[in-house]
Write a structure and sequence with these properties.
The structure is a single chain. It contains 7 helices and 11 strands. Helix 1 crosses helix 7 and helix 2 runs parallel beside helix 4. Strands 1, 2, 3, 4, 5, 6, 7, 8, 9, 10 and 11 form an 11-stranded mixed beta sheet that branches. By secondary structure, the chain is α/β, with parallel strands linked by helices. The longest helix is centred in the C-terminal third of the chain and has 25 residues.
């Protein structure tokens, strides 16, 4: 299904990284298309027009990408899909997070951060707070402070996407799965920068990292496995909630 400016879509799946998009494309047999300068994957599973896209990582790219899509086509619902990091040592890797609220922690207003609430969608009961940030958070005291506010996971895009949707009165929801933990040292600044801003792997940085840290191969393999399986689980949950499976 090709889309043209003004096309009406029932659902737009939005991901930060290609690896989060891949399982959606595969499961729904979507095909790459373009509308204006926006690259999307489109299809009509069950006769329902949908699209899926990658925005890139971080609040700025997420907001810009969704704005471009919504400027080009009509969308009935935006569904954010991908992975997220836990803020404790207890939540199992692979846990689906359906937050009752998403806080924009990337602002410069501590204690007065904007809060967004997903529209009801699917059978799961929303619980906990998801925190959107544009930086890596690993400081134990900062993490403890977030937990005291009901935060269950960290990610980099959802609040920015929610802000765009709410400005246009478009319902949105989020399906993210725990792939790592901010508390166990599995992700640090070096690892954080092994991806490009568009969500693709930074091959040069990855090669340099393994040359300098050969002892980290096994740990990195576990981290990658958690990300891939998390993206798969998030896609499955989002598709099921949209009654597209």
């Amino acid at each position: 299904m090709d889309i043209t400016p003004g096309t009406a879509l029932e659902i737009a799946f939005v991901c930060a990284m290609p690896m989060e998009l891949d399982p959606i494309v595969q499961k729904l047999r979507l095909h790459e298309s373009a509308v204006g300068d926006v690259t999307v994957h489109t299809g009509s599973p069950g006769g329902r027009r949908i699209a899926a896209m990658v925005t890139g990582m971080g609040p700025a790219l997420a907001a810009a990408g969704v704005k471009k899509l919504l400027d080009a086509v009509e969308v009935g619902r935006v569904v954010v899909v991908g992975i997220t990091g836990a803020v404790d040592d207890d939540t199992p890797i692979g846990t689906l997070i359906r937050p009752e609220a998403v806080v924009d922690g990337s602002t410069d207003s501590p204690g007065r951060e904007p809060v967004y609430r997903p529209a009801p969608h699917g059978p799961q009961t929303p619980a906990g707070v998801m925190w959107t940030t544009d930086r890596l958070i690993t400081d134990p005291d900062e993490i403890a402070g977030l937990r005291s506010r009901g935060v269950v996971s960290l990610e980099m895009e959802t609040a920015a996407i929610a802000a765009v949707c709410e400005q246009r009165s478009i319902p949105w929801s989020v399906f993210r799965v725990i792939s790592d933990r901010a508390t166990d040292g599995s992700v640090d600044e070096e690892i954080f920068h092994l991806s490009n801003q568009d969500g693709t792997p930074n091959d040069a940085a990855i090669e340099r990292y393994f040359n300098e840290h050969p002892e980290r191969v096994e740990a990195m393999a576990r981290l990658a496995e958690g990300a891939v399986s998390g993206a798969e689980r998030a896609a499955e949950a989002a598709i099921a909630a949209c009654a597209l499976d």
